[in-house]
Amino acid sequence: MEERPEAELISIPATPRASTPEIPTPSGQRSPRPATRDANKSSAGWTPTSFISPRFLSPIGTPMKRVLVNMKGYLEEVGHLTKLNPQDAWLPITESRNGNAHYAAFHNLNAGVGFQALLLPVAFSFLGWSWGVLSLTIAYFWQLYTLWILVQLHEAVPGKRYNRYVELAQAAFGERLGVWLALFPTVYLSAGTATALILIGGETMKLFFQIVCGPTCSSNPLTTVEWYLVFTSLCIVLSQLPNLNSIAGLSLIGAITAIFYSTMVWVLSVNQARPPTVSYEPISAPSFSASAFMALNGLGIVAFAFRGHNLVLEIQATMPSTFKHPAHVPMWRGAKVAYFFIAMCLFPVAIGGFWAYGNLMPSGGILNALYAFHSHDIPRGLLAITFLLVVFSCLSSFQIYSMPVFDSFEAGYTSRTNRPCSVWVRSGFRVFYGFISFFIGVALPFLSSLAGLLGGLTLPVTFAYPCFMWALIKKPPRYTFNWYFHWGLGWLGVAFSLAFSIGGIWSIVNSGLKLKFFKPA
Description:
Elements lengths: L5 H5 L11 E3 L5 E3 L4 H6 L11 H4 L4 H17 L22 H12 L2 H4 L1 H34 L11 H9 L1 H39 L10 H15 L9 H24 L16 H17 L7 H6 L10 H30 L8 H9 L5 H38 L5 H21 L4 H27 L6 H31 L10
Antiparallel strand pairs: 1-2
Helix pairs in contact: 5-11, 5-14, 7-12, 7-14, 7-18, 8-9, 8-18, 9-10, 9-16, 9-17, 9-18, 10-16, 10-17, 11-14, 11-15, 11-16, 12-18, 12-19, 16-17, 18-19
């Protein structure tokens, strides 16, 4: 066979334009110059090292072969030649990219276990044993699958990382429609969660003070609203940490405290004598329509227990990603560990709490029930430790759920000024957001109804949109099982969202804005 000249062989890889020189960014990543549209079409299945194959290397001499092999290893270490926006180096989510599987487990666990677990027995009081356990099980595996979808879609397009949920929605639904569909529920979920955390955290701090202080308390203690303000101030102080990776330690503390207090509340409840009038029938309502709305509100609370998918892409964006070591591998490893512990927390709290209190469960959840029914039976020190763990968990969860909002504020500022936020501007944004959440919490001082509405309105973020995104980006063949499965699952999630939102609105209207939480017995 006639051998070709080396010059001819070396000119082969010059065709793909995706291998243009990279531009280093302040974040330490590398981003190439934009390729043309035609080049993108022609290089859809191309990778930086695809041209360096054994067939290509076989006729080349040893020195040239060694050079190209070394070049292949270098490209695999450098990465996908990902196109990065230099502005990302100024924003809290993408400012640091040294995350790993441990950080992913901490963040996912902190976001997945929290005060919403305390409300699951309330949902069971609306649904009963059968529908409660069934809905909780289905929701868990459904959201675990959509979590896997989001992890895989983070780098679904070669050379592009979708660092935020809204960015992936824009890639799937279009620039304008993606913003309309994803921006409101994700911001609403973050802000609503922050408001609920202020409510639960402030009330728990008040109870902790009452337990520790006991009869020696002053005659003029802080009011509930003042405790909300104390908790909000602590949240604002902790929110001064600059980026998502910098709060990994807080997420670890939040995850550990959440596991401990969720275990303590159901163990303490199960070990105490049950109330004599306990019943496991769903709460009775004066009419069938009222019963239906209560059941829908209960399902909304179950859906709200699995919020956190609006943070998946953001957490994955904090990790380095290369062609040889893509970010989805450590992300999925950490997420699997986190959701194993999440299941170990949510299911015992829901089942154990409903077994202990039945439909006598107060609207504030199992922590309220523990204090109302057994505050005199449980040692004060043990009860105080439980409430203190709840406070630590709420403080940590506030940080991770507020980070996307901080990122949005700073993105708007940097896009207009073309410079990073100063320390004072960043602090101003976070103080403003903290007190806005405080005022919303004061105006809406109830929790279980808010949880049902939050679960309904934000359900598409967890259960519906990921299925649509998979179908639109991966484009499975039409009318195949894969196509029917994802489109059907997505539309089912939208239908549930509408139904649960109606149930949550009915519950808020029916409450008359007069629900009080954590009332002592």
